[in-house]
# Entry
Amino acid sequence: MTEPLLARYKGTFSQGRDVQQIIDWVQGIPPMPAVAARAMRLIDDPNCSAHEIANVLRHDAALASQILRAGNSAAAARSEHVDKLEEAVQVVGFRYVKGIVMASVTRRWNPDFSPMARGVWERSIGTASATRILLTRLGRSDPDQFFLAGLLHNLGQVVMLSHPEVGKSFPRILKLIAAKSVTFSHAESEAIGFSHPLVGALVAQKWGFPVELCRSILYYDDPPDSVAVHDSGACVTLKLASLLCLSAGIGTVPCYPIPPVEMQNLAKQLGFPEGCLDEELRRITALTKSEFVTESSLYA
# Structure
């Protein structure tokens, strides 16, 4: 995947940056924590059990504690108490366990959880929720298919915020968005010299995620007239989900461009009927906002 990236980004950097510099920086990033990596592989195995997943998770005290908290939060509605990790995995469900694992990994990049880091985290959860809702509304057989892609779509921002030099540029990025009403990628490229989709795709590749997921992260923030050409729907889904997340006021950035016509076109590309696009997008935005409340309490 690296060679196509080199070709795509040749000559598109500024501020004295070049693609090899970015690749060298990403190569210095630690691998995904062993427990998280093993848990993710198990969860993707259709033959794995809650017992097997729990046996892996208990080797990371912070992760195990988070899963237990989530299990008790989910069980509270039934006035039940969960005290075993295996039971918590069953109560929470494999999809949410996967989300909790990845949310925990990314949160560790910025342990101080500054307002900017919180905004990035909220957008990852909100976009993941919106991807599932979009596919559910379309009647797809596997609405969780792109959930992880939604959760990791702004992985590059997580990593960039943690960089001692690059992280200092984020206030300027937000000011550029507010002043010019441009996208994250545009403002990042102007302020830093490169943007988060490339960094996120390279980190996802380094961590061993599937090529399809890496491509979705790489291309999702492309202009709407080109995003659809990269695959059969993952990038379009991610782009629309990220806009729906912001429309719902999740991880809000002042003056961020959320063009209604662009959202309608993306929805049409996914297969939503043209006659009720405005109403459907409003409904999905409301559902995203509601589900974010539940999701964020599990991942906190």
